[in-house]
Amino acid sequence: MNRHQLWLELTLAIVITISPFVIFTHLFFSPTQDYLTFFESRYFHGFSNNQKYIWLLLNSFCPLLLNSLFFICTYQKWRFFILPIIALNFGSFLFYFYQDVRLVSFVLSKETIIPAIILLSVLIIIDRRLISNYRRSIFKVELNVVIKELLSGNFRLFISKSNEIINSNSKKSLKNFTCKVYHLIQISDQKAELIKREERHIKENFLCSDLITGFLILAIGSLYLIYDLFPRSSSLEFAGFNLPTFGFRDIQSLIWYSGQKLAMISLLSLWFISSMHWWRWSLMSPIALYSYQFWDIFSVSSVVEEGGNLIVLPMTCITLIMIVCLGTTIRNYVRVLNYRNQLRQIMERNIRLLSNGSN
Fold it and tell me: Which residues contact 149 (CB under 8 A, 6 or more apart)?
């Protein structure tokens, strides 16, 4: 892992952590106007107010973003079953730029299929490049190692001493200098063992487990469209049980909203379980937010995704702190590996000098 890849992963982790909270930016838009203004021109979106329209847009964009990252960052073959869900998310996003159409029929129309094919082609191209450049190598680090190293400051001490040795004049006492270099190499070997690096063999063929997981993903994706099977009634009676709307306009709206949240909880949980990257803990933030929103459906509140959902914000802050600490530890680990290579080169040079009779 080089520094560029480290910053890329850290940026990815931060984006995943804060992405669901982008939905709350709809609160900054007007609750009374039914149009958006762009450079003195008005765009009439056809909804009752701007807050509702922006909320619907962002509510479809966040799953599109997260599921696209899910596909790109996953190395198992079953990741290709995520593509239909991404196409569905993309169609749901485009749907809000059209008026007087049904979502299911719009998703199957050429207005969705052609742009979706282009998007999926781009994702597949990115995916093929990442197989060789990114996904074959991962780093694993335990949280207790992160806490111990951050509190002790051993990484910083090692880096400081390595800089001192590398930049010092070794000609005065070559033997003493070589002993110091050897000691630092021993320490770097110990530090390198704290974080495990794995090279993964990516299988070319589909396995039975890939097919099972793939069909599970497709079943989860059906939650986005299952609402269309339910009536637009104020209640639903099933097996003697009466299902109310819980403050929604009708049963169909309830199933649409709860299906979206349940689908994202399931997909993000699968991503968390299957991922071995150090930044996978960033997924806890969207999982927590979507879980709270799903639970909030059955609360007494009549407003969805209002500012009260920010109760999950402390969890997000903890996740961000954890990600920054993990990123710092990985960065120090990369620096240790770089210094170890330099120290080994110095060691080999000094051994040659000592063998030639230098003091």
Answer: 155, 194, 329, 332
Q: Is there a domain that residue 333 lies in? A: no
pLDDT higher than threshold 60 for residue 304: no
Could you give the CA distance from residue 56 to residue 54 in angstroms, rounded to a whole number?
5
Question: How many structural domains are present in the chain?
Answer: 1
Residues with Cβ within 8 Å of 30's Cβ and at least 6 positions away in sequence, in order, are 49, 50, 51
In a domain, 336, yes or no: no
DSSP state, residue 204: S
- Looking at residue 140, what is its pLDDT? 64
Q: How many CB atoms lie within 10 A of CB 262?
A: 19
Judge whether residue 307 has pLDDT over 60. Answer: no
User: Dihedral angle at the C-alpha atoms of 339, 5, 74, 269, nearest 10 degrees?
Assistant: 90
Give a yes or no: residue 229 inside a domain.
Answer: yes
Give the range of the structural domain holding residue 224, as residue numbers without chain letter: 3-140+197-305
Contact 224, 260 (CB under 8 A): yes
pLDDT of residue 233: 82
> Model confidence at 308, in pLDDT bands (50, 70, 90)?
low
Residues whose CB is less than 8 angstroms from the CB of residue 161 and which lie 6 or more positions away in sequence, other chains included = 184
Residue 14 lies in a domain: yes
Interatomic CA distance for residues 227 and 256, integer angstroms: 5
Q: pTM of the entire structure?
A: 0.80
Q: Is the predicted pLDDT of residue 335 greater than 90, yes or no?
A: no
Q: Which residue has the higher pLDDT, 210 or 152?
A: 210
C-alpha–C-alpha distance, residues 180 and 106, integer Å: 70
